Amino acid sequence: MATFPALPRRYHSASIWGLYIVGLCPAAWYFYQASTGGLGFNPVKEFEHVIGIWALRFIIATLAITPLRDLATINWVRYRRALGLIAFYYVLIHFAVYLLLDLQLNFGAVGSDIVRRPYITIGFGCLLMLIPLAVTSNNWSIRKLGHGWIKLHKLIYLIAAGGALHYVLAVKSVTLVPFIHVALIALLLAYRSVRKPIMDRKRARKNLGQPARAAR
């Protein structure tokens, strides 16, 4: 299988910073749209909605890194941390819009929503689970936590499932756009359950091919 062209190492750092800039452009654009009346008759709700969708998209992109490497030999692992952090920033903005603009810092209403409205309960739970992932997304935490870091960051699977459920419950219907997002998350989570046999099969084929090449 042909491999995807690799970016020269000297450009790795710049490409990661470029990803942060490009990744946050939709937030800046929709903020501008909301402030200039470009998001319809209820700009706060629409802004909150589109930011939440972008959060889900970046979670999907984060989960897609492993199958892309396994199945398509596209190694973008260096971007996974940035994608995960961008997803966290979008979730944080999504919650901030809800808290500051929608409910105007009415903490009583926030608490009531979290207790009584399941989709907000799930969304708030996902935000809480994302915080330790964002805080430990650095090399120091990887060294200090060791294998525990891997276990902690497996929370992303639960967060992705919760985010998909939050989205469906919020829109109250599964039209084409929610269906695509939920289906992608379901496929990416399902891949984790079959990854080991797939990789074992690939390694076995590779090992069988090595003696033949050596004989030539």
UniProtKB/TrEMBL annotation:
The chain crosses the membrane at residues 12-31, 51-70, 82-101, 121-140, 152-170, 176-194. Residues 52-162 form the Ferric oxidoreductase domain. It comes from the Bacteria. It is a multi-pass membrane protein. One of its GO terms (cellular component) is plasma membrane. Its cofactor is FMN; heme b. Binds 1 FMN per subunit. The keyword Cell membrane applies. Keywords: Cell membrane, Electron transport, Flavoprotein, FMN, Heme, Iron, Membrane, Metal-binding, Transmembrane, Transmembrane helix, Transport. Coiled coil: none annotated. It holds the Pfam family Ferric_reduct. Belongs to the MsrQ family. This is Protein-methionine-sulfoxide reductase heme-binding subunit MsrQ.
